[in-house]
Amino acid sequence: MRDVHEEAYGRPVELRDLARLVAVADHQHVSAAADSLGASQPTLSRALARCEAELGARLFERVPDGVRATPAGALAVEAAREIGERHARLLTELAHLLDPATGLVRLAFLDSMATSLVPSLLRAFHARAPQVRVELRQEPGHEIADDFDRAAIDLAVVSDLPEGPYGWHQLQEERLVLVVPAGHRWRDRAAVDLAEVGGEELITTPPGFGSRRLLDGLLRAAGVAPRISFQSQDLATIEGLVAAGLGVGVLPEAFAGHSGTVGLRLTTPGARRLIGLTWRTDRELAPAAEGFRRFVVEAGPGVGLPQPGSR
């Protein structure tokens, strides 16, 4: 025999049923709640029955002047109210996110690009799309790769193209120099080859950093087994350690000279660092992020960026 309850109320609870539940609690009367929602009283009664059937508890009890929530009903109404409010916020946030003029761009970048490149890029974009919010993450290259894997970022400004399904747009090319202390015996030389630095104490970034991978490749090609004295995640710190006489370093030219160091041109082939914007190609960018990507690509290398020699 077919269950009468199943026949009348077999539909699962819907979001609008929770709104009806809240209305009954607020008005403490089924007919008044129905009027406020523009629904019929039988429709509201069926919605309450569905909620009670799904939750397995009576949610309201009759009183002389209407209805009153039971303890289980009070708990259900509180949860229903929170769900309704969160749903309303979700719709608002999604509307902003999906609007290319007011959405969110999640941009990661390397520490070495924090003082000139990224601010200049954002200034140019902000002039074009002032209502778009940009969430910034300043972190090492391996953390940027992890963030891409977790879909925690949309785009990144990096010094080497990650392996895998990534797009790439070059922004700059930076010349690398050998940075030496002011009192170093090579300070007056115009240029040097990496093959000559085998006997020098070398200060560099830790393994896993893009700049370290680049340097390791250059040293291998030059046949040099480096003697590493210090490692730092920050290129400006490396320049400071060199200035203190603790070794030499290979850095972008913009980092030389700030603490009294001297930058010597490297004659080693490939002694340059490419800077570019990257993004995943195996998933769709949100409209605002796609707008940012398109702005950078279409604007070309100029896009209000500083010259490689500035920091």
UniProtKB/TrEMBL annotation:
<keyword id="KW-0804">Transcription</keyword>
<keyword id="KW-0805">Transcription regulation</keyword>
<dbReference type="GO" id="GO:0032993">
    <property type="term" value="C:protein-DNA complex"/>
</dbReference>
<dbReference type="InterPro" id="IPR036390">
    <property type="entry name" value="WH_DNA-bd_sf"/>
</dbReference>
<dbReference type="InterPro" id="IPR036388">
    <property type="entry name" value="WH-like_DNA-bd_sf"/>
</dbReference>
<dbReference type="InterPro" id="IPR005119">
    <property type="entry name" value="LysR_subst-bd"/>
</dbReference>
<dbReference type="Pfam" id="PF03466">
    <property type="entry name" value="LysR_substrate"/>
</dbReference>
<feature type="domain" description="HTH lysR-type">
    <location>
        <begin position="13"/>
        <end position="70"/>
    </location>
</feature>
<dbReference type="GO" id="GO:0003677">
    <property type="term" value="F:DNA binding"/>
</dbReference>
<keyword id="KW-0238">DNA-binding</keyword>
<dbReference type="GO" id="GO:0003700">
    <property type="term" value="F:DNA-binding transcription factor activity"/>
</dbReference>
<dbReference type="Pfam" id="PF00126">
    <property type="entry name" value="HTH_1"/>
</dbReference>
<comment type="similarity">
    <text>Belongs to the LysR transcriptional regulatory family.</text>
</comment>
<protein>
    <submittedName>
        <fullName>DNA-binding transcriptional regulator, LysR family</fullName>
    </submittedName>
</protein>
<dbReference type="InterPro" id="IPR000847">
    <property type="entry name" value="LysR_HTH_N"/>
</dbReference>
